[in-house]
Design a protein that fits this description.
The protein is built from 7 helices and 2 strands, in the order H-H-H-H-H-H-E-E-H. By secondary structure, the chain is an all-alpha fold. It has a two-stranded antiparallel ribbon. The radius of gyration is 37 Å and the shape is elongated.
């Protein structure tokens, strides 16, 4: 090989080494810069944050506010209607079998079983009092009745229908 070929190879090798060093430097620099950029939160985390910081209520003022308040109340009523227990049935037997029987068949918590002798004092208080105790709940010397039998999705009408069914089916 000639002398000038060796000189060319030396200089070319130096250029290649320099370019490799620059490439490695750029790669390391990009990794460092990428590590400093904050990551995007996951979609689930973003939705959870939105639910957590969502406003609890709203302020309604004037005639526009009254319309918004009426619309909000209608939306709340529609949402509540979809949450009614047992499809909104007023059949006391269905509600009793699915909810009330747990306590009233075994007498748990002092619940009176469907025996006429256990209900005479309660019936003497009147149906209004029995309905109120079943809807609002009651704690007495004989035991505890949770409000709406422990199922807040029951409507007052469903509770009344179930109490009336229970009284009608005493043995």
């Amino acid at each position: 090989m000639r002398n000038y070929d060796l000189e060319f190879l030396k200089k070319f090798s130096l250029v290649i080494v320099f370019l490799m060093v620059v490439t490695v430097g750029l790669i390391i620099g990009s990794i460092v810069i990428n590590g400093q950029i904050p990551r995007e939160p996951s979609v689930a985390a973003a939705k959870a944050t939105e639910r957590r910081i969502a406003p609890v209520g709203a302020v309604y003022a004037g005639s526009t506010g009254a319309a918004q308040q009426a619309a909000a109340a209608a939306a709340a009523m529609a949402a509540a209607a979809s949450q009614v227990a047992y499809g909104g049935t007023l059949d006391g037997a269905v509600i009793y079998d699915n909810l009330c029987a747990g306590c009233h068949k075994s007498g748990a918590g002092g619940a009176p079983m469907l025996v006429a002798s256990a209900w005479t004092a309660r019936i003497a208080q009147g149906s209004e009092t029995m309905h109120r105790h079943a809807i609002e709940g009651y704690t007495g010397a004989a035991g505890v009745m949770p409000a709406k039998g422990g199922n807040p999705a029951l409507t007052d009408e469903q509770v009344i229908a179930t109490v009336d069914w229970m009284v009608a089916n005493l043995q």
